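Researcher: I'd like a candidate sequence for this fold, 264 residues long. If you have to choose between options at a position, lean toward the conservative one.
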């Protein structure tokens, strides 16, 4: 036994230790102030409160939404109609990004048999109901999903579907990028796969970026908005907590504001 441990010790001796985590110390440098809204998930009532949260900001300050406007909450249709309303965009520079839930909805519209069960499992039933569509569940067959897809497409209309398909995956200002879920720290931001931006990456919170680029994101629920090593997390689970977070980004720092009665 003693010889075994001796062999094991010598086998491991001389191996280099894992490289230390890169220190992220780049200052946050936006080209101009902007605001970012976390995951809304069918909470039209909270989205309406965002206007009050930012009413002190000049009208030329852009407002970026990180995606996931639908599913889970009961007012998905109202949220989509509010965000896609041209009058809303006319009053402030509004940029809406694609979230994985919008991507799942589009997948359902394109291939209901293949995408139906997964979307329903992640909250699609609430979105269907908000458009007056019923008759499907986890055990539904291809014919039922196809029928629901046709009803949803009719209720949404081409304008709303085209608006959703045109949603960008990211937005940038200075050394800051806003994405829905995450960015691979080992890749340039211009080379990020769509799947990473929408669904996340295993190394996103384990490795710091070395290019000085900040990432603002939603997707992963946090108890409170957080800033850590170039990552700003703002999904505070609004559909369940009533706390929809807005991050105000200025050159002199980041300010968080929330709906509800919770102080940040």
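Model: Candidate sequence:
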């Amino acid at each position: 036994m003693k010889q075994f441990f001796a062999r094991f010790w010598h086998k491991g001796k001389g191996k280099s230790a894992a490289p230390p985590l890169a220190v992220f110390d780049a200052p946050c440098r936006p080209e101009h102030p902007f605001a970012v809204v976390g995951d809304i998930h069918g909470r039209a009532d909270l989205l309406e409160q965002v206007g009050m949260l930012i009413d002190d900001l000049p009208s030329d300050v852009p407002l970026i939404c990180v995606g996931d406007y639908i599913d889970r909450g009961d007012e998905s249709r109202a949220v989509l109609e509010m965000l896609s309303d041209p009058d809303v965009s006319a009053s402030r520079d509004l940029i809406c990004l694609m979230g994985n839930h919008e991507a799942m909805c589009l997948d359902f519209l394109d291939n209901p048999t293949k995408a139906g069960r997964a979307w329903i499992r992640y909250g699609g039933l609430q979105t269907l109901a908000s458009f007056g569509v019923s008759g499907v569940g986890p055990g539904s067959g291809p014919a039922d999903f196809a029928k629901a897809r046709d009803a949803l497409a009719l209720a949404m209309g081409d304008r709303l579907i085209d608006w959703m398909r045109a949603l960008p995956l990211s937005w940038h200002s200075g050394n800051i990028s806003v994405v829905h879920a995450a960015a691979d720290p080992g890749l340039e931001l211009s080379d990020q796969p769509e799947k990473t931006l929408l669904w996340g990456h295993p190394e996103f919170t384990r490795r710091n970026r070395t290019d000085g680029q900040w990432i603002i994101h939603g997707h992963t629920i946090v108890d409170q908005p957080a800033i850590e090593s170039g990552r700003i997390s703002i999904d505070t689970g609004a559909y369940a907590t009533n706390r929809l977070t807005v991050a105000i980004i200025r050159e002199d720092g980041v300010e968080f504001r929330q709906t509800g009665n919770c102080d940040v």
